[in-house]
Each structure stands twice: as C-alpha cells, then as structure tokens.
Task: inverse folding
C-alpha cells in the first residue's frame, strides 16, 4: 500500500519533538518505551492519514514490538521471522535505495564525491598497511564485540563521512595511544569489481524535513550530513518515511551503558543486518546501510555512517571478505596526531587517494 500524505499533514506528524531522533531513554523497559513512542506516533498519524493508512503504520509498529519481545524471551529465530515480515512489507516502498555500482560519466572511480573514513586505535607508532584499517580479519573474530548493526564475533565494515564522526563512534581503549585513519572509496565500476552495490537509506531524521521546510541550514562543523531540498520535499520520500519511521526509530536509541555486554538498543538493527545478509546471497552483491550516528545527539549531526556486512566466506590464505575487498579501494593509513588538525588530515588523504587507492590485494 502506498501512503498518500500532503506536506502539511507530514509536518503535523513530525513537528512533535517526541518523535525526533536519536532518542535518549532511561534504560529501564525497552518494550514499554517503544510502545509509548509508537502510541504517540500512531495518534499523530491517525489525525493526518486515512484509517487504512493508519492501520498499516500500526502494523509496522506491532511487528517491531513483537520482534523485540520474542528476542528478549529467548527466541531470536522467531524475532527474525517477524522482522522479515516487516521488511517484506516496507521494502515495497523504500525511502531510497542507492545504486552505487553504476558508472557515471560525470566522474570516474578516482573522483567519486563520496569520501568515507575509518579510524583504528593502535598501541604503538609503527608503520601499518591497509589491512590494519580494513574490517577485523576472520581469524581474529574473537576480538569483535557487539555493535549496533553487527553481533559479537561477526566482522562488519563501519565507515563515516568524516574523521570527527569516526572518532565519536570509536573511543580509544586504555591500551591504545594513537589513531590511524584511511580514506575509503567504493569501486562503482561493476564491470571492474564484479560487485553490484546498493545502500539502504536510514539516515533521515524528522528534523531534516522540518529544517528544510523552515529554510534552516544545518550549521554543523561538516557539511557531509545534508540532503537536497528536492529530496526532502519529494512526496514519495515523505510517504515512504511515514512507514519507515518506526523501524528507523527502533534503530536509533542511544545506548544507555556501553560497558554492559548486552545492548537492548541493538536488537532491531542487528536483526535488520541479518535480513540484509540474507538478501546478499551470492558473491556479486553488496548491500549496505546508511544511518546517522546514535553515539550522542551531537554525533548524529556530524555526518553519515555506513555499515557493510562481510559475506562470511573465508580462507586461511586470505582472512578478509572477498566481496568487500573488491568493492572498496583505500589509502595507506596515516597517524592523525601528525597533522595540525583533523581537517588537515582529511585534506591530505584526499590528495593521496589518486595514487594510493588500489583494490585490497591478498599480498597486502
């Protein structure tokens, strides 16, 4: 079903700050917290949409709550089955599904406007190659802790559109003294990499639409978290967002205690990544998710995060995901502290990528 909604109706729903993202909560009862949010949301939708459309939104909310309940009761398989029903429904009307593997005549792969960064904490000041800033190798999966979109022990590649954003996401542990950074680029040429790349849009906040309508410029330090007005005012985008909001919200709770081994805030995003991996069957397809940071309210405005799962296939000779190693090109890492500022570090990496960005090779 396609939601039909006017700009005024859309604004009436999302102008309430109760729906703004990310959400900081008390850490007590996650199901009750979701129920309260969804009850408010459904009431706002009911006042702006038809009864049939409100029922579809209620269906999305109920599926998410049922999924969380199954998971917390010790039935992760049932939890995933319920979430899959949700995805089968809302993927009929995605907000945006970015095709990243089409070769565009306006730029080649070495002038791709999407700059992504990854930083890693290290304990010494020696030279590291590019494998150190790639995803955690399969043979070291025991060191992979739980993350928002990936379970413990399963490596994924997390990237951000600025080094500042990456720093907010990755806090140094006591044994790390330095940070190294690399610039990543997607290899969009399908005939070159053999990988078809898609990215699901989850990075929209209600505030983005409201700021656009009110001609408010996002005065963050980086301009990488900006949507075009044409996109934000697009009727189809707004209609899809009404359906997708319950899922985006469920993925956007700020974690209360990062020292706890289990994070209830990660249940839905991790099940969503499981769905993504099931959609990636075969070795010529890569699906990623673009989302805003939930490390803090400040971090949510610093740029965009991207997460790409590994395929799971491994060999003793090459302990990295073959799909990801073909889909990305990246620079040799540099030490951030050697530059006068983060901005200078980013500029340096951008100037280096033409001669240093090459597909990750097994001999690395």
Result:
């Amino acid at each position: 079903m396609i939601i039909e909604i006017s700009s005024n109706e859309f604004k009436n729903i999302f102008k309430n700050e109760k729906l703004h993202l990310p959400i900081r909560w008390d850490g007590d009862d996650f199901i009750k917290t979701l129920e309260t949010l969804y009850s408010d949301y459904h009431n706002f939708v009911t006042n702006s949409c038809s009864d049939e459309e409100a029922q579809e939104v209620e269906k999305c909310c109920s599926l998410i709550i049922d999924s969380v309940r199954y998971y917390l009761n010790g039935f992760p398989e049932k939890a995933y089955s319920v979430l899959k029903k949700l995805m089968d429904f809302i993927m009929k009307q995605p907000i945006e599904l970015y095709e990243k593997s089409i070769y565009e005549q306006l730029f080649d792969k070495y002038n791709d406007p999407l700059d992504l960064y990854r930083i890693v904490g290290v304990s010494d000041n020696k030279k590291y190659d590019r494998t150190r800033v790639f995803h955690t190798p399969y043979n070291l999966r025991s060191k992979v802790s739980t993350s928002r979109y990936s379970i413990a022990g399963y490596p994924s590649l997390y990237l951000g559109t600025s080094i500042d954003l990456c720093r907010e996401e990755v806090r140094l542990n006591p044994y790390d003294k330095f940070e190294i950074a690399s610039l990543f680029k997607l290899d969009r040429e399908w005939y070159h990499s053999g990988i078809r790349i898609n990215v699901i849009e989850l990075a929209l906040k209600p505030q983005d639409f409201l700021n656009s309508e009110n001609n408010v410029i996002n005065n963050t330090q980086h301009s990488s978290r900006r949507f075009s007005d044409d996109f934000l005012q697009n009727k189809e985008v707004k209609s899809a967002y009404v359906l997708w909001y319950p899922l985006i919200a469920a993925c956007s709770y700020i974690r209360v205690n990062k020292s706890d081994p289990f994070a209830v805030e990660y249940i839905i995003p991790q099940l969503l990544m499981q769905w993504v991996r099931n959609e990636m069957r075969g070795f010529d397809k890569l699906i990623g998710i673009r989302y805003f940071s939930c490390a803090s309210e400040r971090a949510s405005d610093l740029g965009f995060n991207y997460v790409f799962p590994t395929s799971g296939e491994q060999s003793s000779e090459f302990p990295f995901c073959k799909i990801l190693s073909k889909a990305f090109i990246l620079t040799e890492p540099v030490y951030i502290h050697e530059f006068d500022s983060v901005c200078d570090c980013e500029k340096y990496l951008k100037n280096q990528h033409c001669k240093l960005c090459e597909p990750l090779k097994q001999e690395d």
